[in-house]
Amino acid sequence: MPSLGADMEFGTLLEWRVEPGDVVKRGDIVAVVDTSKAEIEVEVFEDGVIEELLVPAGTARVPVGTVLATLRGAATAAGAPAAAPPVPPSPAVQPTPVVSPPAVAAGVPSSPAAQPTPVVSPPAAPSEHRLHVSPVARRVAEQLGVDLATVAGSGPDGAITKADVERAAAAGGPPAPVPETASGQPTAAEPTMAPPPPTGHAAPGTPPAPAPPAPTAEAAERQAAMRQAIGALMARSKREIPHYYLQTQIDMSRAMAWLAEANVKRSVSERLLSSALLLRAVARAVAQTPAMNGFWVDGAFRAGDGVHLGVAVSLRGGGLIAPAIHDADGKSVDELMAALRDLVARARSGRLRGSEMSDPTITVTNLGEQGVDLVHGVIYAPQVALVGFGGIRERPWAADGMVGSRPSVYATLAADHRASDGHAGSRFLALIERQLQRPEEL
Amino acid sequence: MSAAAPLEREHDMHLLAQMLRVRRFEEKCVELYSAAKIRGFMHLYIGEEAVAVGAMEALEPQDAVVATYREHGHALVRGVSAGAIMAEMFGKLEGCSRGRGGSMHLFDAATRFYGGNAIVGGGLPLAAGLALADKLQGRARVTACFFGDGAVAEGEFHESMNLSALWQLPVLFLCENNMYAMGTALEREESETDLALKASSYEMSAWSVDGMDVRAVEEAARRAAAEVRDGSRPCFLELRTYRFRAHSMYDPDVYRSKEEIERWRAHDPIPALTAELRDAGLLGDADLQELERAAAEEIEAAIAFAEAGTLEPVEDLERFVYAEEPLA
Amino acid sequence: MSAQAVKLTYREAMRQAIREALLADARVFLMGEDVGAYGGCFGVSKGLLEEFGPQRIRDTPLSESAFVGAGIGAAMGGMRPIVEVMTVNFCLLALDQIMNNAATISHMSGGQFQIPLVIRMTTGAGRQVAAQHSHSLEGWLAHIPGLKLLAPATLEDARGMLAPALADPSPVLIFEHGSLYNAEGELPDGAGAVDIERAAIRRAGGDVSLIAYGGTLPTALKAADELASAGVQAEVLDLRVLRPLDERAIVESVSRTRRAVIVDEGWRSGSLAAEVSARIMEQAFYELDAPVERVCSAEVPMPYAQHLEQAALPQAQTIVTAVQRMQGAGG
């Protein structure tokens, strides 16, 4: 069971996408897991042949770290053709095992025909560094709602002990509720940074939005669980992260003009949204401000490995997820737009990938569609910064001694004072602003 | 056989009946084993019945019996009911060991039947201990300990013979010498094949008896038991006998010749006693039919009892690992 | 209570217990190699032959299987035998009787027979008696259902465990560690029976549980002293009963201290320590702050030379080091 988020301890294995004998390549989707926050597609990290599914679909509360399936390495499979042909046989042609007739007289059970023992390569090691946490510390942390990623360990090899957790809890205030894993229907997503719902004709390539889920008891329970999970995480953030907030108003007239011109040449499905432009500006600014991009772990800042923008997507049924667009600083506006569409579509169908959930290095939230002007966000621990955008609107604007009207947006920064200070934050917001004044360079 | 008094005739008929019910019971067991009603290891006594039947005649109800894993006949003759034995082999709660022992581990406290011991030689120290308890408590009882020729090669045999003679314990050692330790012939496992001679080196009375002659066995057992009981000391009998069937239910029987088996079958104790009684005019066809009918009836009833038996609830699996009743 | 304290050794406490049992019940008798005229290889039964006579204090031939088996038979025949096996290594010669009969007959007979037998044996190393008289095979015997195993490590238990063991309808094995016989202390005059079901906390502490039994109890207590001077409060749990284990006491102690070191003179592989460790994993995993540690004997036949023997045995310093390792940086 992969860890699909800093706060995830269990997951529900919703379905398997593969069967034993299937040949898989690195990046293939092999399973779908419900983390209680989202249904996430689990990808495989190595080429090989699925050997055995160890956890049946439908199993709830599978602890992170549980081996879900074993994979036989591709090289090994080739070297042992008897064990597994490279192409999975269809069920119809699978050989029937030879069974020796039962011994009658002595009643001795017949021994099964000897089977070649396949050489098994170990399952891929979890990519994340696994914290050393003692069993009791893990249990108590769950009870007290303490995020283990924020606790410094004093045990053997730096392991976190019960006392460490209790100290952290005492320092952090009252406990947050504990998220419970729930299973249920995929929850439709209403992304605030998504294209507007299709009007008239559906854009090709964009899956139609599903009907809102029926308000079943199961769905309600699921929403309650998600609410608790968000609550626990946000409470931890507010309790443990010394936030500071900066805001700036950005003139969007050039950017909007550029956008309008760019969209003239495009079909409806290829049109750019201002969201993509804002993401592009943030991505470039982040690339130049490492202090905003990364994590606060074990009492120290750890720089992110690449710029992975977490995009906050609010869900129609309530709740929030922030999956990542990977390596956003290397993507063009068009690529970011495509990535955004893809991400939103999959968030809507509850089919996000594990790595998208687990490794954003900074989060962007845009509540402009909701009509707000300003967002003072809560940092998604263990990240150290969150950028918020309000709506782009015509507002009075004073320039060159004249008061006029221009489209503008309020960009805000919530940042972790342990990792940076106001000076760095100001510079970062200024960088975003500068990008948006030169849209042609974006 | 001299002209038998009526009492003698009755006793001979009793001996014949006992041997016959053991024989027929075990023949039925073969069938039931083949039908998978009985499982596990099952060792048949067929051919050796005269030993158990003759020896038991010498025992009193207060005496104790320690037997081996080839003990269906001993249990039957000692008085354990055929139904309880059959139910045991069926693995039923109503079995004499609640279905926990099976063929090799028949136990019955009421008749002081102490198993059912399937480690060759392992019963001898127990018998010495039971006799020690009697000795220490001043009870004139006999502990009859059956074992085979194979046990004579075990250390426990020698330790127990020595201890019993040294402490003058009232044990009646009954060595059923059927000439094979499983598949190994006596001369291939013993440097001294005269087992009575070997036993006598422990300073106890020991002699050999024709184990195919039930009356000879009874006579010797009575004499030995009296020595044990009255003299409070051990005694050893070597009972020369032969099993007609395999060591366990089925074995290849390649370690002995067909001719040898046929030679011994000529001494089958049941036809031998039958013929003798017929010749003396003491047994008619009707008598024989009645014995057969009685044996068959008892066995059918035993099977019905076993079939109707219940299985011990699995929840009771761990009962009796430790004794449940407090000590008296 | 104003019970007068009496000074005595572990050996004397054990002798008092046997004497008391002989006086209390005419069915009780003692048998074993050299328990009579010699006075017991370790002097436990010294003087008893003179007092009780050869019928009840029985010297046996060197026939472990026969006299242990005779103990089983006598127990089934209504007696209350105390069988002494000189060392646990010698009990291997009687293992057939212990395993196939004593432990088995009650269950195999469907509960028809009780075996109220006590087998006492000396166990353990530390006296330079080398590889055939020194081993701790309690773990082997503790594997066997049907047996109860006791390890008196204190004077009180040496004095008080025999009576309840004899009153138990199942076979009970008592392991007397050879290094304890000369241990001296005080007992209240008239000290009597103790329970034979529960482990005992011999020293309370909140930082780590040192779980020991028999000969390793003094070692664990010594380690606890050393740890205390370094500010670490070790709880010392004396198992006392090796089968059935007092799992609850183990779990409760470890749940308090969150760390456990098991001290066992048996070899580590497949040891009693392994069993205790597994129980902790099964029952108290989510109470642990560190992996369970074991301090066992080196996996060698016990050597004769003193320095090698000591190097092979669990030592207080090894326990202290293990505790420090599991305390980590922050304690």
Walkthrough of the structure:
Chain A contains nine helices and 19 strands. Chain A has 442 residues and is α+β, with helices and mostly antiparallel strands. Chain A folds into three domains: 77 residues, Beta Barrel (OB fold (Dihydrolipoamide Acetyltransferase, E2P)); 38 residues, Irregular (Dihydrolipoamide Transferase); 200 residues, Chloramphenicol Acetyltransferase. By secondary structure, chain B is α/β, with parallel strands linked by helices. Chain B has a single domain, classed as Rossmann fold (3-Layer(aba) Sandwich), CATH 3.40.50. In chain B, strand 3, helix 6 and strand 4 form a beta-alpha-beta unit. By secondary structure, chain C is of the alpha/beta class. Chain C folds into two domains: 182 residues, 3-Layer(aba) Sandwich (Rossmann fold); 128 residues, Rossmann fold (3-Layer(aba) Sandwich), CATH 3.40.50.920. Chain C has a seven-stranded mixed beta sheet with strand order 3-2-4-5-7-6-12, with helices on both faces. A five-stranded mixed beta sheet of chain C has the order 9-11-10-13-14, with helices on both faces. A two-stranded antiparallel sheet of chain C has the order 1-8. In chain C, helix 11 links the parallel strand 13 and strand 14. Chain C is globular and about 60 Å long. The termini of chain C are far apart. The mean pLDDT of chain C is 95. Classes of the chains: A alpha+beta (442), B alpha/beta (328), C alpha/beta (331).
Q: What keyword list fits this structure?
A:
heterotrimer; A: 442 residues; alpha+beta; OB fold (Dihydrolipoamide Acetyltransferase, E2P); Dihydrolipoamide Transferase; Chloramphenicol Acetyltransferase; 3 domains; seven-stranded mixed sheet; five-stranded mixed sheet; 9 helices; 19 strands; B: 328 residues; alpha/beta; Rossmann fold; two-stranded antiparallel sheet; 11 helices; 12% strand; globular
Secondary structure tally, helices of chain C: 13
Order of helices and strands of chain A: EEEEEEEHHHHEHHEEEEEEHEHEEEEH
Order of helices and strands of chain C: EHEHEHEHHEHEHHEEEEHEEHEHEHH
Categorize the overall geometry of chain A.
globular
Q: What is Rg of chain A?
A: 25 Å
Strand order of the largest sheet of chain C: 3-2-4-5-7-6-12
Number of strands of chain A: 19
Distance between the termini of chain C: 42 Å
Structural domain count of chain C: 2
The termini of chain A sit apart by: 39 Å
The pLDDT mean of chain A sits at 75
Rg of chain C (CA only): 20 Å
